Each structure stands twice: as structure tokens, then as C-alpha cells.
Amino acid sequence: MNATVKVMGSEAEADFVVPDHLTREVFRKCLEKDLNVDNIQIVHFEITPGSSPGDNYTSKIYRCKVLYNQPHTEDKTIYFLAKSMIVIHLSDEFSQSGITEREVNVYRDLLPKLSKFLGGTIVAPKCYDIFTEPNQNFIFEDLKALGYTCADRVSGLDADHLKVVLNKTAKFHAASMKLLEEEPSTEAAYPIGFINEISMKEPVVQGFWQGNLKLVAEIVNTIPGYERFSAKLMKVYDNFVDIALKMMRLDPVKDIKVMNHGDLWVNNFLFKYNEETKEPTDVIFVDYQGTFVNSPAIDINYLFSTSAQLDPLRRKLELIEKNYYPVFVNELQRLEVKSVPSLEDILGQIRSREMFSIINLFAVLPLVSINREESKTNDYTQFLDADKSKRKMLIGMYTDRFMDAMKFTLNNLEDVIDEIINEYS
């Protein structure tokens, strides 16, 4: 009747212990609520690490195998995934901004509303329960038990994976446009993402973004043919907060408004594959902590800058045209949304927020590119120590993947950088 802990695999944490808050009562409550009964008995449960060390910065993930029954029935097995948020001490203003409760609101309110417009499309795992003591916790279905697996973070996503992600993102965005059309008040409930006026006042947050810009400026100054970018990036560095906030500002006339997932990178995707061809056939998104209303360019640019391999990064506009836009339009027409954006509208949105691509390439891709051995020690606390943070970022910045993506992006978007910094001349 007791919990069993099994730590499997060479990457499992050696000091792993079962958290006190994942109890028999938690799983019983989840099952009774889901099955609408009051007679569930938990026979046995096992808890193991749910992710590799270094893959999660703001939460701890646990895989839970639960054996249960009801009176006069055989035992059944179900698999849960528990996500426990790490308590991060930021300012009262940040805590009161609502972003720390964002994911709770998404699962309790937003996703149920979106589901009626999604036509059976699944964009998130089933959430069995949410509780906030001793800290914020979510109990999800375990998608791995349903045949979904993670892609390789270090190598990134190829065009086949990105096609599946873009298809699903298009459906999510289209459903949100219908919701915003029917319930305009939804926008006020999800007004800001991770980059906002409040977060930019947090020394740790601002320092993370700006510090990486400065590191890249120093690196390019040592690369033949790229020295000219050093001064340009330092100009962005000097005016970073203003530039970042301008990127997030919605133009009520020109901008298309959708609900952005807000954190579309490779570790927040679980893929299902064709057993014979091994090609990805579906994807489900996790981690809705940064969900907010803004241009679809936010999600799309973030996806490519943080998660695309070099070849699909070069083909970004082609992939958007072939794999995002047609699905987006079909869904909008199915839902009878009043205003359907043109392809030129979407590409214009992408172009107007390419600086968002640039700063996320510098801030996020180095961490994504770090090999698994080195990333085992990654956690949120490293960003509190300037020396540790710099060391980690430099390791990522000197990987082939980051270097190739950086060189391509700087050359491809030099005019975007020039246009931005000319405003501060």
C-alpha cells in the first residue's frame, strides 16, 4: 500500500525522493473526480523522475504509475504526470501581475473554452487536478503512456517536425480568434507574456536578456566578417528594454490578434510518430505559463529561433506559407470568423517582429544547444549567479548549432537590426 520510488536510467537524479505532496489522496481525488464516483481505492503507486536533469527550469516533473480499483472490480493501471512549480521569489509587483497564476487560468478556463472551437483537435494534455499548496501543482495525463515522446532538444526540429507543429499552432491560433470574436473580454484576462513592463524591472529577468546580447556582441567581434555586428548589437543592448517592449505592443489597427501559447520551444512539444515511417504525425503542447494575446508572429518567430534546425530556419517563410497559413485559413473559414487575414498579412506580422526572433535566438538557443551532459546541472538558480550564467551561455554559444543559426540570422536580418537601431541614433 505504500508508494514505491524507482529511479531509472543514467540521467535520473541520484538524490531523487518522492515529494510529500504527491499522496494516495491526490490520486484518489483525481480518479474520483474524473470517473464521477466516490469509491476509488489506491492499491499501489510508483513515482519516478519525469524529465531529464536540466530540462526544466521552473518546475519539477514526476511520472506517476497508479494501480487502483473499485469495489468488486479488478485492479486497473493509470499513468499521471505531476508538475510542481518551483517557488521563485520575485517582486510583489511581478507576483501581482497575474502571470504566476497564468497556467492555472489556462487549464481551468481558457482551454475548456477553446475546445469547443477546435473540432476535436487536442492542443494540451488532459488536466485532472490543480492544487496550490504547498506550491502550485498540476496533475496531467501522462502523454508518454499514450505513445507521445519528446524530440531531440540538442539537434532541434527538422522540417517534418515543424510542419506538424505549425499545423497545430495554426489550429490553436484560429480557434482563439473565434473565441476573441465571441468573447472580447478574454483579451483582458491574458494581456502580457514573459516580456512586459513589470518583468523588465526584475534585475534577474532583464539581466538574462541583456547579458546574452552583450556576450554575442563580444563573440561576433572575434569572427572574421562579422565584426560589424558587434557595435550594432551593443546599440540594441543599450536600448534593450525599450526595444523589447515595443516588440510586444499591439497595434489595434494593423495587428492580427490571437492567443499565443507563449513558449513554443522543443521541450514543450510531445510528438506521436508513424510506427512504420517514423515520421511525426501529431504534437501536443505543454507548459502554458506564458499564454497571452498578441500577434501570431510571437509564437511563430519564437518557434523558429529557438527550435528549428538550420535548413528549416533558412526556409522559414516557405514553411509558414505551406504548413501554417493554409491550415489557419481553413480553420477560420470553418469557424466562420468574420475577418480572414491574407498570407501577406501574416508574413507582414512575421517581418514586423523579427527582432523578437533575434533576441530569443541569443537568449534561448544557447541553452537549448547545450549537450545533455553539460545541461544536467542547469536550473533556475544559475541565472542568479552571473558567473555561472555566463559560463553556461558561452558553452551554448560556441556550439556549431548556435554559431550556424547566429551567422545566418545576422546576415538575413541585418536590415531589421539596422532599422531598429537607427531609431536610437
Observed structural traits:
EcKL, Aminoglycoside 3'-phosphotransferase, Chain: A, domain 2, 425 residues, Kinase-like_dom_sf, six-stranded mixed sheet, CHK_kinase-like, Nuclear Transport Factor 2, Chain: A, CHK kinase-like domain-containing protein, disordered N terminus, 2 domains
Structural summary, described in words:
It is a single chain. The protein has 425 residues and is an alpha+beta fold. It has two domains: 3-102, Nuclear Transport Factor 2, Chain: A; 149-422, Aminoglycoside 3'-phosphotransferase, Chain: A, domain 2, CATH 3.90.1200. The protein is 46% helix and 14% strand. It has 18 helices and ten strands. The chain has helices at 24-35, 92-95, 102-115, 159-182, 186-189, 203-220, 228-238, 240-248, 296-307, 310-314, 316-334, 343-352, 354-363, 365-369, 372-375, 386-397, 400-412, 414-422, and strands at residues 3-5, 41-49, 59-69, 76-85, 127-131, 137-141, 258-260, 269-273, 280-285, 292-294. The strands form three sheets. Strands 1-2-3-4-6-5 form a six-stranded mixed β-sheet, covered by helices on one side. A two-stranded antiparallel ribbon has the order 7-10. Strands 8-9 form a two-stranded antiparallel sheet. Strand 1, helix 1 (24-35) and strand 2 (41-49) form a beta-alpha-beta unit. Helix 4 packs parallel to helix 11 (316-334), helix 6 (203-220) packs antiparallel against helix 7 (228-238) and helix 7 (228-238) crosses helix 18 (414-422). The longest helix is centred in the middle third of the chain and has 24 residues, at 159-182. It is globular and about 75 Å long. The model is unreliable at 1-12 (pLDDT under 50). Pfam families: EcKL. This is CHK kinase-like domain-containing protein. Residues 138-334 form the CHK kinase-like domain.
